[in-house]
Amino acid sequence: MTGERNQRRKFMNNLMFVLALGATIMALIPLGSILLYVASKGLIALNWDFFTQLPKPVGEPGGGLANAIAGTLILVGLASLMGIPLGILTGIYLSEFSRGRLAWLVRFICDVMTGIPSIIVGIVVYGTLVLAMKRFSAIAGGVALAIIMLPLVTRTTEEMLKLVPHSLREASLALGASRWRTTYSIVLRSAMGGIITGSLLAVARIAGETAPLLFTALNSRYWHTGLDQRIASLPVYIYTYATTPYDELHRLAWGAALVLVAMVMVASLAARLAGRKAGGGR
Amino acid sequence: MQKPSHQSRQWGDAVFRGLTLLAALVMVGLILVIALQLIKGSQPAFARFGLGFITGSRWDPVHGDFGSLPLVYGTVVSSLIALIIAVPLSLGIAIYLAELAPQRVRAPLSFLVELLAAIPSVVYGLWGIFVLVPWIRTSLEPFLHRFLGWLPFFQGTFYGFGMLAAGIILAIMITPTISAVSREVLLAVPVSQREAMLALGATRWETIKMAVLPYGRSGILGAVILGLGRAIGETMAVTMVIGNRPQVSPSVFELAQTIASIIANEFSEAFDDLHLSALVMAGLVLFIVTLLLNIIARLLVWRVARAPEGMSRE
């Protein structure tokens, strides 16, 4: 009797082990498929022209997406210039200065904002900036991406600053350093690695964002001419080209996807390296 | 000498503090701007349709008739399909990675699963159009129709594009979210819980089932809701594979439309104010729903992530 029951228990145990392992493998199949397709189809599309030429009109073969690569870099740069400093300052406020209700509120909003669909950010930036400037622009696209970035940078900064031991702050204050000196040269410096990691992860996240750019930065077939002008980007080109019926454009879309994924992976990898270098045990 | 430097130091501190406070207030201001802008933008549509907007069953830009039911339906059903696939899968992954996997494969495997979250949505869409959709059209839909075709869910034309494609691609996209948060919740369960069960002679699975999962139940629920929030708001990948036709049909083979995907599709082409306003109002509905889901999810996850601190880590 008990032997049979124990066998059933053992069987259940093994079955669940296999199922859990199977689930993990199942999740890796689409990952493998996506990376394989992006790599193989993308590599075919990449050549010198892809990185140096402007897009050709539909029907003409050749051409490249040089303007979209530059555009993505400009947009991400703009967003980082706004999002990272603001996020770090907010993170400092949350970790160093606040104990009260406002901090709770900001922390809460921060968490909630990471869950707001990015397309909503696009609508709002369109309704405010784009309508006010009366045109689609790189600035509007950058602001939309910065809004998505802000809560991510804020939360990692706060978490990293909290890891800095209190004794360091006390030692600095005891030596007569002012509060902001302490924060700037002691606390911030010891948490720098983690903050860089968090910022790079946020960069990786926004580099591939498409929805908030659709009605802010729009798209462009030409080189970028000014921050108040519409601007091309890789994600928007992938979307536009993938949904056309032309094979030639599909080829370029795969190429763009490979470049975009490579950019995101490089940023993620750099984030991990920065974290490892600074964090040590983490 | 002493005095001015002391004073300037206090000034420095006050300025610094004020600066960080200002940055924090920007965050509060942002959420207010987002909410106000959505409410303002949806005024014309609200004045015209009122709350009937939510239950109206026709979305017809040509005749200026806007009801969001087909969009809400598409959003809910595609997210449900995603949850049905992703929840068991993610739980399996979380259990494997937190409880069962050999120590040295845990980190690399977790990294790989989380890599899924790093792939941009539009790349999912691209892969969806050229790999997933053809597979669904030629293999999955005929298969489902053959064996389950007597159900109303699996009837109609095999487009490949449509509700099923959207649900599957969403499932792939939310799996890393749900599994990563669940894994963290499981890791937060005190080791003493497991040791007590194992000491009583329970198998690994019995330990997980009776001691670990119940302990982390609300956290896992939070993870699922977090995933749901992501699925509901996901835009690009869905837009590219769902077929973009606002309609209510029981069959998952049919083309459909979600709130997020119709905004991506029509916002830049909407020329009259009512159409634009209706899209913003749909966005407002989406905003409120994701906001609520996120609040609930955070509260649930916080509860578990915080509870064990006093108990397990001395």
Walk me through the structure.
- The complex is a heterodimer of chains A (282) and B (314).
- Chain A has helices spanning 2-45, 48-52, 66-97, 101-113, 118-133, 138-163, 166-174, 179-190, 192-207, 234-242, 247-279.
- By secondary structure, chain A is mainly α.
- Chain A is globular.
- In chain B, 49% of the residues are buried.
- Chain B contains 14 helices and two strands; from the N terminus they run αααββααααααααααα.
- Chain B has helices at residues 2-41, 43-49, 52-55, 69-100, 103-118, 121-148, 163-188, 191-199, 204-215, 217-233, 236-241, 259-266, 273-306, 309-312; strands at 59-60, 65-66.
- The model of chain B is unreliable at 308-314 (pLDDT under 50).
- Chain B folds into two domains: 2-41; 69-312, MetI-like fold, CATH 1.10.3720.10.
- Chain B has a two-stranded antiparallel sheet.
- The radius of gyration of chain B is 24 Å and the shape is flat.
- The interface between A and B is large, with 88 and 89 residues.
Provide the descriptors you would attach to this structure in a database record:
heterodimer, A: 282 residues, mainly alpha, MetI-like fold, 2 domains, 11 helices, 76% helix, 0% strand, B: 314 residues, two-stranded antiparallel ribbon, 14 helices, 2 strands, disordered C terminus
